[in-house]
Known about the structure:
Layout: E1 2-8, E2 16-21, E3 24-29, H1 33-36, E4 42-50, E5 58-67, E6 70-76, H2 82-89, E7 94-96, E8 101-104, E9 106-111, H3 127-141, H4 144-160, E10 163-170, H5 176-189, E11 192-199, H6 216-229, E12 236-242, H7 250-263, E13 267-271, H8 275-285, H9 289-296, E14 303-307, H10 313-322, E15 325-328, H11 330-335, H12 343-349, E16 352-355, H13 360-363, H14 368-383, H15 391-398, H16 400-405, E17 423-426, H17 439-445, E18 452-457, E19 460-464, E20 467-468, H18 474-494
Parallel strand pairs: 4-7, 4-8, 9-10, 10-11, 11-12, 13-14, 14-15, 15-16
Antiparallel strand pairs: 1-2, 2-3, 4-5, 5-6, 8-17, 17-18, 18-19, 19-20
Amino acid sequence: MCDWIFSDISMWEGSFFAVWADGKFIFIYGIQEADTMKRYNLIIKNAQIHTMDDKRKIFAKGVVGIEGEKITLMKEMSELTAEELHECESANTVIDAEGKVVFPGFIDTHIHIFQSFLKGLGADHRLIEWLNLSALPYGQYMTPHQHELAAQLACMEAIKSGCTTMSEFFYTNQDPELAHSCIDGMVSTGIRSVFIRTFQDTGEEYGMPKCFLEPAGKAMKEVDALKKAYKENDMLSIWTGPDVTWSTTKEGYQEMLEYCLSENVRYSMHIKETEVDNEMCGRYYGKDIVDMLEEIGFLTDKFLAVHCVNLTPHDRERFAKYGVSISHNPAPNLYLGSGIPPIPESLATGVNVSIGTDGAASNNSTDMLESMKLAALIQKGIHRDAAVISADDIIHMATAGGAKAIGMADKLGTLAAGKIADLIIFDPNHLKSAPMHDAKATVVYASSEENIDTTIVNGKVVYQGGKFTCGIDERSLIDEINSELVSLKKQIADK
Length: 495
């Protein structure tokens, strides 16, 4: 028989009771939530979840639990214990994604941000003519503030299309202030960023402006300075690389490579984009560019090769051997008439392939969904085989392939407990995409930015329900860019 009860509720999350019964104390402990209960800052429930892992695991009606920047729970709703269900319902934010689909966030492995100012400029010209009509003159004279605005425009458009990581290939006037402004613009939107500070040490005879040129040694000092300046920002990675194969001397390649291998820095470059590219390299190096790069040890798993339109079977074999990744940019390759790279053949050889949007001047968009659709359709067309590449292949390239290409496969690109929470919620319930029979096919072939319900980066919602959380107003941004263009065009005309 219980004689009396002493209760101490000094901890708000729990309690314990001391009961005197049969001549002794019996201690009964309640739930100590402070010690055991998970505190999710975000729960996504009732979603169809595509993990994009090696087994392509799908949760039919699953839940994603996010603590801080990481995923710590992923289960079918029906498999949750009573305790887990209570923890989920107690999250700071709960998103009911009934009828919607969760994917890893898309990773854009190649873009030139300043070109966001140049949409439609230089249209209907081949690469070299286009460069001299648009990218090169504007790249010379854009101010730091204009670079920041361009970054915000590019990144916000990308986020709106489900992109969570953007790789900026920075090749304009290499004034350090411009680089910092571009980075500031990227960071302000909440997107995960790779900043590739490139260099050119030759190429003036082909129209490369003098202000773009610098010795490789000086460029590497600037790369090192950027690494030190942003070492505390775990949302930003600093890379380097030659701009194009014909704007770098062999000595420049070697000096850059020595720095990258000694400092564990990744690098990227435009390569084999056009036949002109091949001809220029023959004049510069007296041999095929891939042969030369292999000779100096440039082909490593730190190398992200961009475009690769004219890769030979032997090139693909070497890329696979050394772990080189490809950034496939379908829109600019079509827009500039450069050609179509051998993507199914590269995949079959074992080369990792990712997707990039390239510059808005050669794409007119930083919309990853659009680039993904083009990446699928052009291969089906030129091979006259609808099965040559699948929707699953394309989404893998945009997620897991992208993560591997930027050296972050252990953190991004697939969904699992322990991975960083970079993901999207896709809503198929729109005119363009309804009804949805197959989620992957719908994303690749029947979607647009209106289908992106929510974009989450590093565990934080950066876009939801048509609104950005970064505090930048779309309309005001566009108005300011249009105003800046007036003065920029006048400056270029006066030169």
